[in-house]
Amino acid sequence: MGDSLTEGYRLENPKTESYPAQLEKELQKKGYSVRVENQGISGETSFGGLQRVRFIASQNPNLVILFLGSNDALRGIPTSETQKNMEEIVK
Hints:
91 residues, 54% helix
């Protein structure tokens, strides 16, 4: 769950080159039977992630890796607000 860095924005082939795709490939090479789903959205902020977290949870993932906050910083959102959103997402 993340922003454009997770999504693979501007990569030639995000389906194979994005961080989630690479993570899945490496875990499978090590013998893990996993499927890593890319839930990155370009421009996503911690507030947007907070709005999406129920949907993500409804998919019953075994694990969620959370990469948010860079767009908050770019938009000048106070770090206290980002921290509050991130804490709520984790809850």
